[in-house]
Amino acid sequence: MTIIVTGGAGFIGSNFIFHMLGKYPDYRIVCLDKLTYAGNLSTLAPVMDNPNFRFVKLDICDREGVYGLFEEEHPDMVVNFAAESHVDRSIENPEVFLQTNILGTQVLMDACRKFGIQRYHQVSTDEVYGDLPLDRPDLFFTEETPIHTSSPYSSSKAGADLLVLAYYRTYGLPVTVSRCSNNYGPYHFPEKLIPLMIANALNDKPLPVYGKGENVRDWLYVEDHCKAIDLILHKGRVGEVYNIGGHNEMRNIDIVKIICKALGKPESLITFVTDRKGHDMRYAIDPTKIHNELGWLPETKFADGIQKTIQWYLNNREWWETIISGEYQNYYEKMYGNR
Ligand code: NAD
Ligand code: TYD
Predict the structure, then answer these.
(1) Model confidence band, residue 246 (pLDDT cutoffs 50, 70, 90)
(2) Which of the ligands is closest to the CA of residue 183?
(3) Closest residue (by CA) to atom 3 of ligand 2?
């Protein structure tokens, strides 16, 4: 079994590679990654010498390069994590989101059609459903919830997601799609809420909470997401969409307070800043389908997962300090300087 994992030098893709190499010693994993600002080769250091692993620096939009890799590797499966993934960046510069997230996905699926494949899996997001109101805690996203996106990021992910389903219906490509809620855990790039707050708190810097901090996300420990994708790949029904997540809803402000407490930092570091444009209020997943069909449920409770995550950032300072000392400083200044 050879699996091409795109975007494997990023947060979830790298965790997925570790999971798969650990669980299936006879699988070959080929990681294809462009190494954008969000990709980090040092993250993959623990598997670089594994004979079942290969890293290839490549853009998923590079049709010739992608076809060449398929010709060499004859993959049985492709799992597409590669994407521009940050909502705030998509608001500043949507174009690259459309290129990578939609057109890159098309290149990968064309390669799958050309060379033949057992399974193409698209890692999508619950953000394709838009948001839910705060005063309706009875509402959840199901796979039937209409697509109704808010940001250029979620729109580009929805475009890709729908294109994948179109390749199933039109060409019979054996695809599956998963729409997951917010992940957290090791190797999460420090521009995202949880790692950003941990890094800032450790450096005694202000903790910039958008708006009033009342927005709700349904947080999932990254390992649980990886296990769900593993299950879908092996047992999921072709042509189907599976929501992943569930029952770990938290307000942003409460998460930031938990981080302050765990690190012994004062809540006075919390600074309320100008809200994100078009900011989604609440995401919440109904995981009934994946639970009933594949037996999946989240295993890590938020209270445990956040402590493990904070501990990981304490133990791996070099990983994130290297990131935030580079180009990231310009990004941070631009995004938060006059906010
Ligand atoms: P990330 O930004 O940490 O990693 C993205 C990876 O993709 C990086 O290694 C980057 O170098 C690579 N990449 C970007 N453009 C590329 C291109 N053109 N060609 C090849 N590689 C490219 O993202 P993440 O948080 O790990 O998210 C992975 C996937 O999961 C994305 O598709 C995202 O939409 C989806 N997702 C993320 C979350 C979340 O909470 N992080 C939740 C649901 C779904
Ligand atoms: P983020 O990690 O960017 O994920 P997403 O927007 O995809 O859900 O943000 C999570 C939540 O945290 C979101 O409601 C925006 C908020 N947020 C802040 O309040 N401050 C920040 O500095 C960041 C990055 C996010």
Answers:
(1) confident
(2) 1
(3) 192
